């Protein structure tokens, strides 16, 4: 079941698309949800982090970059103070 869960997590596919060689998808999903509810995944992650940290594999430096700032779609091309409005296109026909 772990291989089925790992395959699904790695590919991002729906549960029903798990290859048949891993067994029934419903069983894999049930095991995944049971481990999720009882905190098994959190314990596994904590144990892996502790082992990697003790071995010096992890680098805990963090870099935060906030150079991407999104504006509202109507913010582009807004009139500035003191600028005249753009002339309207008129159909001369």
TrEMBL record:
Protein name according to UniProt: Insertion element IS402-like domain-containing protein
Organism: Streptomyces prasinosporus
Pfam families: DUF4096
Position of the signal peptide: none
Residue stretches making up the Insertion element IS402-like domain: 1-44
Highest taxon above the source species: Bacteria
Residues passing through the membrane, by range: none
């Amino acid at each position: 079941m772990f291989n089925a869960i790992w395959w699904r997590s790695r590919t991002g596919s729906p549960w029903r698309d798990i290859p048949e060689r891993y067994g029934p998808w419903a069983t894999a999903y049930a095991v995944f949800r049971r481990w999720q509810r009882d905190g098994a995944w959190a314990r596994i992650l904590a144990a892996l982090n502790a082992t990697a940290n003790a071995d010096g594999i992890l680098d805990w430096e963090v870099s935060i970059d906030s150079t991407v700032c999104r504006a509202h779609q109507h913010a582009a091309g807004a009139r500035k103070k003191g600028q005249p409005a753009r002339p309207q296109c008129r159909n001369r026909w």
